[in-house]
Automatic annotation (TrEMBL):
Coiled-coil residue spans: 215-277, 306-354
Protein name as annotated: non-specific protein-tyrosine kinase
Main enzyme class: transferase
Lineage top rank: taxon: Bacteria
Gene3D superfamilies hit by this protein: P-loop containing nucleotide triphosphate hydrolases (3.40.50.300)
Pfam family, one: AAA_31
Biased composition (Polar residues): 1-22
Source organism of this protein record: Stenomitos frigidus AS-A4
Keyword Magnesium annotated: no
Reactions catalysed according to its record: L-tyrosyl-[protein] + ATP = O-phospho-L-tyrosyl-[protein] + ADP + H(+)
Length: 787
């Protein structure tokens, strides 16, 4: 399988590589390229080839299965039906449950899948089996469970056929149908009767058990529910006391209103503060002093003692100025006046400190304080002091409002949490109270239902088995149609499996289509069987049939138009095994190309077991081997084929067992390039790749491989393995040529078991050979090469 996957990848790699050489591109036709989805054609062909085998295996196995079914013991089948719920609304009203439950709460839905599982559960069957064992000790819970699994005991919902919209359909009913079959009719009927009794007992016990369990469940839950209600009420009361709330909705709105009012006050205070600060700055700029300095200056301006001293000082200064014009500074008159001036200044300073409340003679006084303030400046000073005081008051008020705002914001942030807690507790309390009330109501309802004794189910069809007019049990059919269809299908699958194993064991490709589908390689042609190749008359002495000639004409055409221009110039013909017909394919392909006017060279690169010279009756004393070893030149040993003047042949020369070394040499690479330049088409016949990988060394200087495979002859595993190896080394493969497809394939291949043995005896027609001389080769090289 892995090898086949590798060959699938090979097709793309080969096309990509050949496109680089200019011979195989996007125009390559793959017969599988258009197929999409699942391809069933290989399966169809396999079925067609093995139709008789599949039919035989299917018929025999079906006959055995039918015989075993028809010859089995006779069985008897019986059934009964039980109604598990009321049919109409009036019937529901008369149901015991209607006394305690409203009709809207009763519903009409029964979980039938679960009910069916319960009715065939081991626990319920064990109780019924205990009653059956009184008469039939061999019946047990295990035997009844086995009967369920083998469909001898069936418990299902009864369905009726109805016609809707012109088509038949099955509708389920409210009936449970129980059927049982066995070999003893009396035992079957008795078991059905006990099953009916057991199910009726179960319906009554189940209701009582269910109701009793419900009451007990409610009794168990009531204390915890009551405790939960009490706890929630206590939590809600504590929450109200902690946050001093009664109605969270009203209190939240009031708190929001207060926050808005505080916000308005804050904005108003801020606006007034800005106005007072602007007035203060403007007055201070006009006076050029702070409020303290301005107050001190105004106080001195209104002090009469200070002002009289100032007047007297001015007189002394005037006198000093007058005397200084007449006397110098050292004059006693000047000195006396200065002394009076100094004393007056001291008195002014003393009076100023006394007026300003400064203690000590060392305290300094701002000169602006000593300046005289008129009435206008005194009024401005009063406004400055008032603005300063008002601004300070507004700042204090703003701080108080900010504190109130912080407090309210904190309350607003906490209030949603409180409201959420209050709402959550209220909802949980309401739910707990509702649940508690519902449990109390349901407990009383179930107690009323528990007092009812009526069986809730009803047997509508008594347990019975089929009987004839004489009241004798009628056996049922041993084989049901659906089981017979399944058995026939299994027999057909068995026949297909046998055919598949047969082909797997044969390990062959039985048609070209099988090769194409499995190998994912394009089919270049199909070579039919030609009887003249195995008659011992020489390969060219017997005429080729019309189908044989057309096959190679088609093969050559497909190769010519395989890719875009230029066409292939160098081809390697190979196969996976010996005897696949690659040598015959190479020879006839060369003849076909030569008949089309192409200058063709056929090279026998099978240095281990050459065949070309024998098929063409040519001497093989010197050839490719001697050219590669340097003993001669290619022009000297290239021979003209007797069948066609356009066909030249380079035989293998003397056989060698280490031919791989020569084909991998640099001389071989140079020779291939030289021959490709001389001829329109060079064809290399090579050994089978499963035996010798000699042909792989020729891949680099060629356009690619043409793979020949024998239909119904080549081993599938060996072919896929060889192609996987070629894919591993990314060797180009142009396509596949199936050889000998048809009914006579097996006979054709049975005539030989050696490589090339079926192609006639060695010829002795040496007089028909024509060895090309160097002059002829030169003339041929000088001819038209545009084809």
């Amino acid at each position: 399988m892995k090898a086949e996957q590798s060959t699938q990848d090979l097709s793309f790699n080969n096309q990509e590589r050949f496109s680089e050489n200019g011979t195989l591109g996007d125009e390559t036709v793959d017969s599988n390229a258009g197929q999409k989805g699942l391809d069933l054609s290989p399966v169809v062909r396999m079925v067609q080839r093995n139709a008789f085998l599949i039919a035989g295996v299917t018929t025999i196995s079906a006959a055995l299965v039918a015989s075993s079914m028809l010859n089995g013991p006779r069985t008897f089948k019986g059934n009964f039906q039980v109604l598990v719920e009321p049919i109409t609304s009036q019937a529901r009203l008369s149901d015991p449950a209607a006394i305690s439950r409203p009709l809207a709460q009763q519903g009409d839905g029964v979980d039938y899948p679960t009910l069916l599982q319960v009715l065939q559960s081991p626990e319920l069957l064990a109780k019924i089996a205990t009653e059956i064992q009184r008469r039939y000790p061999d019946v047990s819970a295990n035997s009844l469970a086995t009967a369920v699994s083998t469909k001898n005991l069936e418990i299902r919902r009864h369905e009726v056929e109805s016609q809707r919209f012109g088509s038949q359909s099955s509708e389920p009913t409210k009936l449970i149908q129980v059927s049982y079959k066995g070999t003893d009719p009396q035992k079957v009927e008795f078991i059905l009767q006990e099953l009916a009794k057991g199910y009726l007992r179960y319906s009554l016990e189940d209701r009582k058990t269910r109701i009793g369990g419900g009451v007990q469940f409610i009794e168990d839950q009531l204390p915890s529910l009551q405790l939960r209600v009490n706890d929630l009420e206590a939590e809600l009361q504590a929450l109200k006391q902690r946050y001093r709330i009664t109605d969270p909705t009203t209190e939240g709105a009031e708190l929001s209103k207060q926050a808005q009012e505080v916000q308005s006050q804050q904005l108003e205070t801020q606006r007034n503060l800005v106005e007072q600060q602007a007035l203060y700055q403007r007055l201070q700029a006009q006076l050029g002093a702070t409020p303290e300095v301005a107050l001190a200056a105004a106080s001195l301006s209104e002090n009469t003692s200070y002002q009289s001293l100032v007047a007297e000082l001015k007189k002394v200064e005037a006198e000093l100025a007058a005397k200084s014009a007449r006397y110098n500074d050292a004059s006693p008159v000047i000195q006396a006046i200065k002394e009076r001036q100094r004393k007056l200044e001291q008195l002014l300073a003393t009076e100023a400190r006394k007026n300003l409340g400064l203690s000590g003679s060392g305290a300094s006084i701002d000169p602006r304080v000593l300046s005289f303030q008129n009435a206008l400046r005194v009024d401005l000073i009063k406004q400055l002091v008032a603005a300063s005081n008002t601004a300070q008051q507004l700042q204090v008020r703003r701080q108080a409002i900010a504190q109130s705002q912080v407090f309210l914001n904190q309350k607003l942030q906490e209030f949603p949490v409180v409201v959420r807690q209050y709402t959550g507790l209220s909802q949980r309390l309401e739910l707990a109270r509702t649940t508690l009330n519902q449990f109390l109501t349901q407990r009383e309802t179930l107690r009323i239902e528990a007092a009812q004794k009526e069986v809730p189910w009803e047997i509508v069809s008594a347990p019975t088995i089929e009987r004839d007019g004489a009241n004798n049990p009628i056996p049922s059919a041993n084989v049901e149609p659906k089981f017979l269809i399944v058995a026939l299908g299994a027999c057909l699958v068995l026949g297909l499996a046998v055919a598949l194993l047969k082909e797997k064991y044969q390990n062959r490709f039985f048609s070209p289509e099988d090769m194409e589908g499995a190998l994912k390689l394009p089919l270049l042609g199909r070579i039919p069987f030609h009887k003249g190749l195995g008659q011992g008359t020489g390969s060219l002495s017997a005429p080729r049939s019309s189908a044989f000639s057309k096959a190679f004409s088609s093969l050559y055409t497909n190769i010519r138009f395989l890719g875009s221009k230029p066409s292939a110039r160098s081809l390697i013909i190979s196969s996976a095994e010996s005897g696949d017909g690659k040598t015959t394919t190479a020879l006839n392909l060369a003849l076909e190309a030569a008949s089309m006017g192409q200058r063709v060279l056929l090279v026998d690169a099978n240095l281990r077991s050459p065949q070309i010279h024998a098929l063409l009756s040519l001497p093989n004393s010197a050839g490719l081997n001697e050219v590669l070893t340097g003993k001669t030149e290619a022009e000297q040993v290239t021979q003209r084929a007797p069948a066609d003047s356009n066909l030249s042949v380079l035989t293998s020369g003397q056989s060698l067992m280490d031919s791989g070394r020569l084909l991998a040499s640099k001389e071989m690479q140079n020779l291939m390039q030289k021959l490709r330049d001389r001829f329109d088409l060079v064809i290399y016949d090579t050994p089978a790749l499963s035996e010798f990988p000699d042909a792989n060394f020729l891949a680099d200087q060629s356009n690619g491989f043409i793979f020949v495979a024998g239909v119904s002859k080549t081993k599938r595993s060996k072919l896929t393995q060889v192609l996987a190896e070629m894919n591993k080394f990314r060797l180009p493969i142009l396509g596949l040529v199936p050889n000998h497809p048809g009914k006579s394939t097996a006979n054709a291949y049975s005539q030989s078991n050696q490589y090339g043995q079926s192609y006639g005896e060695k010829p002795t027609l040496l007089e028909n050979l024509k060895i090309l001389k160097p002059s002829e080769s030169a003339a041929e090289r000088s001819g038209d090469t545009s084809r």
